[in-house]
Design a protein that fits this description.
Elements: E1 3-6, H1 14-20, E2 23-24, E3 28-30, E4 48-50, E5 55-58, E6 71-74, E7 84-88, E8 91-92, E9 100-108, E10 113-121, E11 127-136, E12 143-163, E13 185-193, E14 196-203, E15 209-220, E16 227-233, E17 236-257, H2 264-275, H3 280-298, E18 301-303, H4 306-322, H5 348-360, H6 362-374, H7 376-385, H8 416-432, H9 435-456, E19 457-460, E20 463-466, H10 483-506, H11 508-518, H12 522-533, E21 556-557, H13 576-580, E22 582-583, H14 590-596, H15 603-614, H16 625-635, H17 638-649, H18 666-680, E23 684-686, E24 689-692, E25 702-709, E26 712-718, E27 721-728, E28 732-736, E29 739-743, E30 746-750
Bound molecules: beta-D-glucopyranose (BGC).
């Protein structure tokens, strides 16, 4: 169960499989397109991407208004290195199922590579064996390697390209996909030096350089020497390899971008000089080493369901492949697997992806948080543009840090992203109690983001209100007192005031310097404390639920009965205003707040709210079903919890949202892992420690995962018994079904 395999060459699934079989290392990602078939290019999304690298294009509005962003970042499709066409006695290998036998493609989750193989039958009936392998190196992020291996009793020719003729995919009919500005990179120069083919490009508007150097190695496994020739033509460098019987072409591509490097040319050369000797198999060895340590702590083992196991490991692997680990990049909604949402980073990171990495890969979590710290200046600048005198307003969607949302009702109005980011920093604090980190970076983000609540909120009859915001549910926009936003802001300001005193006690001198720099004093903190304490949290007495916002329950109910299947997702079939007029949800909103901050509502309210909102939720957003699953477990609705989990865990593999071709849904990938840990196992981390309350769905036998807490590692195994084992570090206190335990070595508790 350490692979994703497909032995079916189905043309209808080509685009989908390009996403599923993507490879990446968090810096570079490449979709699973066919090396030998550039002619398929028109029908597929033949993309490779660099995390954090962007072009910046003007936003053209029909009607603009004050404060609208005028430019936006886009993730460009970079030079294409995928093509290697194969010729057998002069006949080109084409993708034709009738000429291909034993087709097989596999993504190896322990070897970190993708492999495709088949037997090809030529027009004259001769057979050839072809194997294509590719990997994005985890050891050296700049490197992408390919290998084409052909065995054929005759002449073999491989023409491999470094192609600068690339444009992004666009789709006018789907707002989740980009429109306009398809040509984002401009070719500066193609040249050859010391057997390295260089393709020098630049982001057309942002003028950020990007260099790819490609070098080939040829192995002819029979006596006859192979030959290699290069040629620069049009916008490509083509390299022709010739041999007989058995030819293996290895292609090493090195990418260096102008965001991370001051001298892209020298950096490419330098990386070559260090790795020139490495063969494809040497890189595979490095992948295996890296992945063995990744899986050790990150694996979630499932007992009794191969189908679930396959899906969970696939998800963890793709998260690893897409997540930025260098504080310059983050993880976009589709990771590095496609162009959906233009490669933007959203709150998806803090509320879905980060909670998983906080538990299993603390260093990744830190890097993601530092990315937010790095873009704090842009968030402050955005707050000024929005007319706020103080504080920082994080962009709803971005790459470089600027607000890139051109539709403010479902974009900039989602101020909750400020609290989501702060929540994540606070979680990090709960995991590590690392006051030095808080002082260096986290505190400033937490204070600056908290200031926004004082800017956009106001006092009303002794309560604190926040008006004109949009909560997570994008089918309800610009409302007053969105429960999610208010409760998150309440928690956020509570922590801001708490950290103020904790950090003062920790390092008065250092903390006073920070306060001076950002002009923060006890009066302002007191304002936050009071606003937090008096925060209005909508509650409807009659229904016994937290109302999503002030006006939600007074709206008409959406007519679900007469909405046929083909009208979903609603966003593609109804004007936003139509949707906004009804009680209908795109995704978990209040239910999500109840998950993140269950301490602010009692269980009865949580259950009643779940029952109420569930009926109104379309789950048109991929961020929804995992949260409903987690909360179904919390409410004791075990069958439902399993159904939601299955919906979430198979979403991309079965393409249930119909748009996996535009990239995998990163938040959901993490969300279904959380469905096991936070859902079935009931794991929580709070101020007073960690707790679990495990259940096991009857469809499988149990599960196992690890968490990192206060410097110690725990392994939690749930079957008939719950076993908690201390793997290393100091003893850990844990609550299991409301009983407190100290784990020094191993404890076993009967499962309820
Ligand atoms: C969801 C947002 C999410 C975005 C990117 C939208 O459909 O409504 O909550 O951030 O997708 O995943």
């Amino acid at each position: 169960m350490w692979q994703l395999a497909s032995n079916n060459l189905n043309f209808e699934r080509l685009l989908l499989e390009e996403s599923l079989f993507s490879i990446g290392n968090g810096y570079i990602g490449t979709r699973g397109c066919f090396e030998e078939a550039p002619e398929l290019m028109k029908n597929t999304i033949r993309g490779s991407y660099i995390n954090g690298y962007y072009d910046r294009v003007p936003i053209l509005y029909g009607e603009s208004a004050y404060g609208f962003p005028t430019v936006q970042d886009k993730l460009p499709r970079i030079m294409d290195t995928q093509t290697s066409m194969v010729f057998l006695d002069g006949e080109q290998v084409v993708i034709d199922a009738s000429k291909m036998k034993n087709y097989f493609r596999v993504l190896h989750l322990k070897k970190g590579l993708c492999e495709r193989r088949y037997t090809y039958i030529t027009n004259s009936g001769k057979e050839a064996r072809l194997i294509f392998r590719r990997l994005a190196s985890f050891a050296v992020n700049n490197i992408l390697c390919y290998e084409v291996d052909v065995e054929y009793d005759g002449e073999i020719e491989i023409i491999s390209l470094l192609d600068s003729d690339v444009s992004n995919h666009s789709d006018e009919s789907d707002p989740r996909v980009a429109t306009g500005h398809e040509k984002l990179l401009t070719l500066k120069k193609l040249h050859l030096k010391d057997e390295i083919a260089f393709c020098d490009m630049e982001a057309s508007f942002a003028k950020i350089p990007l260099l790819c150097g490609t070098k080939y190695k040829l192995e002819s496994k029979v006596d006859i020497e192979g030959t290699l020739e290069h040629c620069i033509q049009d916008q490509k460098i083509s390299t022709t390899a010739k041999g007989r019987k058995h030819l293996t072409l290895q292609k090493m591509c090195i990418f260096v971008d102008g965001i991370r490097s001051k001298d892209i040319y020298n950096d490419v050369i330098d990386i070559y000089s260090r790795y020139d000797r490495y063969s494809f198999d040497d890189f595979v060895r490095l992948q295996e080493e890296y992945l063995s340590s990744f899986w050790e702590n990150s694996d979630i083992e499932i007992y009794g369901s191969e189908k679930v196991q396959e899906a969970i490991r696939f998800q963890l692997f793709h998260l690893l492949q897409s997540v930025g680990k260098d504080k310059i990049s983050n993880i976009s909604a589709k990771g590095l697997t496609g162009e959906g949402y233009e490669g933007h980073y959203f709150w998806d990171t803090e509320i879905y992806v980060l909670p998983l990495f906080q538990m299993t890969q603390p260093e990744f979590a830190k890097q993601l948080l530092l990315y937010r710290f790095n873009i704090l200046p842009q968030a402050k600048e955005r707050a000024r543009q929005m007319g706020h005198k103080r504080g920082a307003a994080y962009p709803w969607r971005t790459i470089s840090g600027i607000e890139c949302s051109s539709y403010f009702p479902a974009g900039t109005a989602q101020y909750h992203i400020n609290a989501d980011i702060a929540y994540s920093f606070i979680q990090f604090y709960l995991y590590h109690r690392d006051k030095a980190f808080m002082l260096e970076s986290a505190a400033e983000v937490i204070f600056e983001t908290a200031r926004i609540w004082l800017e956009i909120g106001h006092w009303h009859k002794g309560e604190y209100h926040i008006d004109n915001v949009t909560g997570p549910d994008e089918y309800t926009a610009i409302v007053n007192n969105n429960f999610y936003t208010n409760v998150m802001a309440k928690y956020h300001m509570y922590w801001a005031s708490r950290l103020y005193s904790e950090l003062m006690d920790y390092d008065q001198n250092g903390f006073e310097k920070l306060c001076q720099r950002i002009n923060l004093d006890a009066d302002e903190i007191n304002e936050m404390k009071q606003a937090s304490e008096a925060m209005f949290l909508p509650y409807d007495k009659e229904l016994g639920i937290n109302e999503q916002d002030d006006s939600f329950l007074s709206k008409e109910l959406w007519d679900f009965e007469n909405t046929t299947e083909d009208k979903y997702p609603l966003l593609l079939h109804f004007h936003p205003l139509t949707i906004y007029r009804y009680q209908v949800l795109k995704q978990a909103d209040t239910v999500l707040a109840h998950f993140l901050l269950e301490e602010y509502s009692d269980l009865e309210t949580v259950k009643k709210s779940f029952d109420y909102y569930e009926k109104l939720t379309t789950h048109d957003s991929s961020l929804s079903s995992c949260i409903y699953g987690i909360m179904a477990s919390r409410c004791g609705y075990h069958d439902k919890a399993y159904d939601y989990f299955m919906e979430s865990v198979r979403m991309d593999l079965d393409d249930t949202h119909g748009n996996t071709k535009d990239g995998l849904h990163m938040a959901n990938l993490a969300g279904s892992c959380l469905s096991i840990i936070n859902g079935f196992a009931g794991y929580r981390i709070k101020e007073n420690g960690i707790s679990i309350a495990p259940t096991v769905p009857k469809q499988f036998e149990g599960y196992r995962f690890r968490i990192h807490y206060l410097g110690s590692w725990l392994e939690i195994k749930v079957q008939k018994y719950i076993q908690v084992k201390l793997l290393c570090g100091n003893s850990v206190n844990i609550t299991i079904y409301d009983h407190d335990y100290i784990v020094n070595d191993i404890i076993e508790v009967e499962r309820k």
